[in-house]
Amino acid sequence: MDRRRFLGAAAAAATGAVALPGLAEARQGIDAALSGSDAGDLAYLDGAFERHRGGYRGRPPAVVLAEMRGDLDLLRDVLSRPHAAGTRADLARTAAGITGLVAIIQHDRSDQRDAHGWFATAEQAARESGDRQMLAWALARHAMVPLNYGAPRSAADLAMRARAEAGQAPSAAAALAAAVTARALASAGDHQGALRSVADARLIAERIDGSQAADTWFGYPLQKHHVHLSQAFTLMGRTREAYAEQEAALALTTSPSVMTRALLEMDAATCLHADGDPAAAADKAVGIWERLPQAYREGLVRSRAEALHQTLPGAAHTRLGEALAS
Predict the structure, then answer these.
(1) Looking at residue 33, what is its pLDDT?
(2) Over 90: is that where the pLDDT of 276 sits?
(3) CB 187 within 8 A of CB 235
(4) How many angstroms separate the Cα of 323 from the Cα of each of 256, 263, 282, 286?
(5) Cα–Cα distance measured from residue 208 to residue 169, given in angstroms and rounded to the nearest whole number
(6) DSSP secondary structure string, 5-35?
(7) What is the pLDDT at residue 256?
(8) How far is 319 from 189, CA to CA, in rounded Å?
(9) How far is CA 80 from CA 55, 73, 76, 83, 261, in A?
(10) Which of 183, 177, 230, 232 is nearest to 205 (CA)?
(11) CA torsion, points 54, 55, 60, 61, in degrees to nearest 10?
(12) Are 61 and 258 in contact (CB under 8 A)?
């Protein structure tokens, strides 16, 4: 049963009305003969984009991905139809957003190959739409795949392209690109470049508000800002600044945010090791891991924990390794 028929059947069940045979098909035929015949589907997809962009809201990544499955089928169907140029550009922008969200989820689930593929699709759609801010957002988000999975130079290249696309006006995409550039350069060992990008991110974050600072996957709220800078300073071994960013981020984290909290705590554990206390680092990381729901144990949190595990010596290395293997 397609979506229109399903909705029609649901409405009939709710009102007690019985649909006349062929009535829905007649309306669809009239729609097809009118300009803007896809208006209903386009409006639905735009709403789906707005709904999904709100993030996990305490739900595991696999659950959110499953909820998006039907919308992806509809998007594929609508994209295959002819459209006027303006409508096509709007649809391409929506497609860039929705496919970018799928890429984020696949990144968080550690499916690197699929994440790269979905981000490539999002970037193609963003270019077709002509929206440079959408393209900058897709590139900056894409940079987080190589950044979090061991290729910081590739991440820096993508992030710097994103920063160039975003331009000089303050925007969520520009702030994200600057923050991810800082993290990538820190991971690559270019601490001076990372500090310059930290300053860039801070300057932009101070100048954005409204929807640009909204707590969504497309906004750049202060909480997200502090999360990024926590990781940048952690990677540079600047633990005093990292602890301050972690404290600021946690103070602003009011939603369940299971993954965000775990990542910040892993940053804190890494800072303990950098400060010369590997046993305390292992204890903290093990505590985080043991409290983590099973649905979050494969993906970005595991990657962060394994990165710490590789650097720990002796008994601390063994302790965290045993926890990760359990």
Answers:
(1) 46
(2) yes
(3) yes
(4) 24, 17, 10, 6
(5) 10
(6) HHHHHHHHHHH---PPTTHHHHHHHHHHHST
(7) 74
(8) 28
(9) 28, 11, 6, 9, 41
(10) 177
(11) 120
(12) no
Give the number of residues written for the chain. Answer: 326
Tokens of 213: 């600072």
What is the dihedral sign for C-alpha 264, 266, 269, 275?
A: negative
Indicate the burial class of 158 (C-beta count within 10 angstroms; 0-12, 13-18, 19 or more): buried
Alpha helices (H) along the chain: 3-15, 23-33, 39-52, 61-79, 85-108, 112-129, 132-148, 152-166, 172-188, 191-205, 222-236, 239-252, 258-274, 278-291, 300-311, 314-325
pLDDT-derived band at 235 (thresholds 50, 70, 90) equals very high
Residue 267 in contact with residue 232, Cβ under 8 Å? no
Three-class DSSP category at 171: coil
Averaged confidence pLDDT in the chain: 88
Question: Which whole-number Å values give the CA distances from 250 to 55, 144, 230, in the listed order?
Answer: 17, 21, 11
Confidence of residue 34 (pLDDT cuts 50, 70, 90): very low
Rounded CA-CA distance 71/180 in Å is: 29
Question: Under a CB-based contact definition with an 8 Å cutoff, are residues 181 and 163 in contact?
Answer: yes
Question: What number is the average pLDDT over the span 88-110?
Answer: 92
Domain boundaries, the chain: 40-130, 143-250, 257-326
**3-state SS class at 210:** helix
Residue among 250, 220, 245 nearest 233 (CA): 245
Alpha helices per DSSP H over 170-217? 172-188, 191-205
Reported as a single tens digit per residue, the pLDDT across 8-22 is: 444 444 444 444 556
Contact partners, residue 8, CB within 8 Å, separation at least 6: 19, 24
Tokens of 34: 């009118």
Condensed to tens digits (0 to 9), the pLDDT of residues 212-222 reads 999 898 999 99
Residue carrying structure tokens 């929807």: 211
